[in-house]
Amino acid sequence: MKYYKILLSVLIISCSVSSIAATPDSTKAGKVNKFTPGAIWPDNHGTHINAHGGGIIYQSGTYYWFGEHKIAGDAGNKAEVGVHCYSSKDLYNWKDQGIALNVSNTPGNDIEKGCILERPKVVYNKKTKKYVMWFHVELKGKGYSAARAGVATSDKVTGPYQFLKSYRPNPGEMPFYPAGTPDSEKINCVKPASKTDGFFCRDLPGGQMARDMTVFVDDDGKAYHVFSSEENFTLQIAQLSDDYTSHTGKFIRVHAGHQTEAPTLFKRNGIYYMIGSGCTGWDPNAARWFSAKSIWGPWTFHGNPCKGEGSDITYGGQSTHVLPVAGKKNAFIFMADKWTPKNAIDGRYLWLPIHFKGDDLEINWLNSWDLNEFKN
Ligand code: DGJ
C-alpha cells in the first residue's frame, strides 16, 4: 500500500512538472519580450489571441489590435461573435479588451450572426473624433456572393462599434485616370477588353465587389479603402469621404486581372507601398509587393518580397496589415495570418520585420525576434 502511495506521489509531481514545461514561455514568465511567428500567442488570460485577418491602430501610447473572432471547428470561419480587440503598450504583451463589434441577432441584418465578416481595420477620424471600422461582409447563407464593404463607428477605440451599413462601393462611377492617360488604357464598357473589365462593367450599376481589404490614412488626413474587386481579379483603391464612412466615387484599379488578395498599404519616405497575396482560398501562396509615388499610381509591381525557404508560400501565411512601429524610423512589421480553416480559432500570427534596401523591401523568416531587429 505504502509503495502505491509513493508511486502516486511521484506520478503527481512529474505530471505537474511536465505541465509547467508545456506552458508557453510568455505565461510562465508573465511577460513576453519577443515575437514568435507561428506559435501560440497567449493574451493576458493565457488564451491564444483571437484576432485573425486583423489590423492595428496606435493611439496615445497604446496599440489596439482588431481582428476576426473565430470559433473552434470548420464552421469557425463564420462570424458567430464579431470583431475582437486587444491592447498593448509594447506589441509583445496583449490585453483582452473584449468584442468591439458584435454580430447581430436580428434575422436579415447585414451582419447577422453566421454571416462572414473578414479583415476588420480601424482608423481614427480627427474631424469627427470617431473611430471608424471597415470590414468585408458576406450576407448570411449567401457564400461569398455579396462582396460588400461594411462600416461601423465608435466614440471609444475599444468600442462598442455601431454598425452603420454595408454596400458595394462606387455604383455608376468610372475609375479615375491621371491627365494624359490614353483612351486605349481606359476601361471601355461598350466592348470590355478582358474578363476583369467585363466584371467591372457588369457591376457598374450596382457598385463594385469588395472582398479582402484594408484602410489607409494618408498624412493629409485623407483615407483610402483598398479591396479585391471584380471577382478578386483586380485591386481597387478608393477614396473615402471626409468622415471616412462612405466612398467619394474617386478610385483606381491596380494590377488588373492578376488576382491580388489580402492587401496592405503603408507609406515610407513619401513612397506608397502595398503588399498583398495571390488568390488560393485558405491555402498560402507567394506574396507580392507594389510601390508608387502617388496613391493614384502608377503602381509598379515588384514580385515577391519574401526570401529564403518558404518564401513561395509566404512561410505559410497571408498578409493582413503592415504596422509602422511608433517612435522608430523605418520600422515596419509585416503581419500575416496562418489560416487553419479546419479549426479556425487555432489560426496563427506570422509577424516579421520588413527590411529596406534603398526604396526596395525584403522580408525574411525568423523563428523569433524583437524590436531591436530595427536598427534605428
Ligand atoms: C482568402 C482571403 O484572403 C480570406 O480573407 C478569406 O476570404 C479566404 N480567402 C476565404 O477562402
Would you kindly provide a written description of the structure presented here, covering whatever features stand out?
This protein is mainly beta. The protein has one domain (28-373): Tachylectin-2, Chain A, CATH 2.115.10. 9% of the residues lie in helices and 39% in strands. It is built from 3 helices and 21 strands. The strands form 5 sheets. Strands 17-21-20-19-18 form a 5-stranded mixed β-sheet, with no helix packed on it. A 4-stranded antiparallel β-sheet has the order 1-2-3-4, with no helix packed on it. It has a 4-stranded antiparallel β-sheet with strand order 5-6-7-8, with no helix packed on it. Strand 10 and strand 11 (234-240) form a beta hairpin. The N and C termini lie far apart (66 Å). Bound molecules: (2R,3S,4R,5S)-2-(hydroxymethyl)piperidine-3,4,5-triol. The site of (2R,3S,4R,5S)-2-(hydroxymethyl)piperidine-3,4,5-triol (DGJ) has 9 residues, from strand 5 and strand 13. (2R,3S,4R,5S)-2-(hydroxymethyl)piperidine-3,4,5-triol (DGJ) is lined by residues 53, 118-119, 212, 261-262, 281-282, 318. One of its GO terms (molecular function) is hydrolase activity, hydrolyzing O-glycosyl compounds. One of its GO terms (biological process) is carbohydrate metabolic process.
What's the topology here?
Layout: H1 2-22, H2 25-29, E1 52-59, E2 62-68, E3 82-88, E4 95-102, E5 116-125, E6 130-138, E7 148-154, E8 162-167, H3 195-203, E9 213-217, E10 223-229, E11 234-240, E12 247-254, E13 261-268, E14 271-277, E15 287-292, E16 300-303, E17 306-307, E18 318-324, E19 332-338, E20 348-357, E21 360-364
Parallel strand pairs: 17-21
Antiparallel strand pairs: 1-2, 2-3, 3-4, 5-6, 6-7, 7-8, 9-10, 10-11, 11-12, 13-14, 14-15, 15-16, 18-19, 19-20, 20-21
The structure holds (2R,3S,4R,5S)-2-(hydroxymethyl)piperidine-3,4,5-triol.
(2R,3S,4R,5S)-2-(hydroxymethyl)piperidine-3,4,5-triol binds next to strand 5 and strand 13.
Pfam families: Glyco_hydro_43 (PF04616)
GO molecular function, one term: hydrolase activity, hydrolyzing O-glycosyl compounds
Family: Belongs to the glycosyl hydrolase 43 family.
